[in-house]
Amino acid sequence: MAQSKGTVVLAYSGGLDTSCILVWLKEQGYNVIAYLANIGQKEDFEAARKKALALGAKKVYIEDISREFVEEFIWPAVQANALYEDRYLLGTALARPCIARKLVEIAQREGAQYVAHGATG
């Protein structure tokens, strides 16, 4: 068996894109740790955990970060009236730095060399 190229913490949702990138990273020789962030969305996190493990993730983290997402990202954006095209709040865009911060924390905790995402380009 080839030596691992290192460990990657992958922002994972359980959808097609993140599942494909998980498999691709494994095929490239990386150990993959999947990270699912619960920011308040309705999702079957247990099904996503099982899928990630079945696809080859060596570990899966699922964290409820909805409180810090609201307090540290959403609330300040509402206070600043941060709107896109004067129409709607930047919810999805605001979630990215919150999730990225957690990816880095887990990478440091796990001694991972890399972080990645599988979002549609």
UniProtKB/TrEMBL annotation:
It holds the Pfam family Arginosuc_synth. Pathway: Amino-acid biosynthesis; L-arginine biosynthesis; L-arginine from L-ornithine and carbamoyl phosphate: step 2/3; Nitrogen metabolism; urea cycle; (N(omega)-L-arginino)succinate from L-aspartate and L-citrulline: step 1/1. GO terms for biological process: argininosuccinate metabolic process; L-arginine biosynthetic process; urea cycle. The keyword Ligase applies. PROSITE patterns: ARGININOSUCCIN_SYN_1. Signal peptide: none annotated. This is Argininosuccinate synthase. It comes from Acanthisitta chloris. The lineage of its organism: Eukaryota, Metazoa, Chordata, Craniata, Vertebrata.
